[in-house]
């Protein structure tokens, strides 16, 4: 089997190939993995001292804490997005009134059938 290698199988499962034009359509997983590799690749090279220059020596502690900073910023942005969407969530008065009317009708129908609700 020509697809017996795991990396090829993973690539085929996460990407959609169009064989007639050899174009890869990225899924969300591939987008996140690409971003992680682009950020964590150079970071790990600096942390393991594969890349050494004056800048990395001077700002080593900041570079070391960079992933923690990214996670904190991601959390703050997520909280801000959730708060904004909750704040701008539309109230549907017509839908609420319709739902209340349906509840009253259902209670009346159940009362006719002998079920008592409080």
Automatic annotation (TrEMBL):
Pathway participation: Protein modification; protein glycosylation
Classification of source organism: Eukaryota, Metazoa, Ecdysozoa, Arthropoda, Crustacea
InterPro entries the record matches: DPM3 (IPR013174)
Subcellular location: Endoplasmic reticulum membrane
Name used for this protein in its record: Dolichol-phosphate mannosyltransferase subunit 3
Keyword DNA repair: no
Assembly notes: Component of the dolichol-phosphate mannose (DPM) synthase complex.
Cellular-component GO terms for this entry: dolichol-phosphate-mannose synthase complex; endoplasmic reticulum membrane
Organism: Cherax quadricarinatus (Australian red claw crayfish)
Family, similarity comment: Belongs to the DPM3 family.
Entry function: Stabilizer subunit of the dolichol-phosphate mannose (DPM) synthase complex; tethers catalytic subunit to the ER.
GO BP terms, alphabetized: GPI anchor biosynthetic process
Classification via PANTHER family: DOLICHOL-PHOSPHATE MANNOSYLTRANSFERASE SUBUNIT 3
């Amino acid at each position: 089997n020509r697809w017996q290698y795991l990396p090829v199988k993973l690539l085929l499962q996460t990407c959609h190939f169009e064989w007639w034009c050899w174009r890869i359509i990225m899924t969300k997983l591939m987008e996140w993995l690409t971003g992680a590799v682009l950020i964590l690749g150079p970071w790990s090279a600096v942390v393991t001292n594969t890349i050494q220059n004056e800048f990395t020596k001077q700002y080593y502690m900041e570079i070391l804490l960079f992933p923690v900073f990214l996670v904190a910023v991601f959390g703050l942005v997520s909280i801000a997005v959730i708060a904004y969407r909750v704040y701008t969530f539309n109230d549907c008065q017509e839908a609420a009134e319709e739902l209340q009317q349906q509840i009253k009708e259902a209670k009346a129908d159940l009362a006719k059938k002998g079920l008592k609700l409080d």
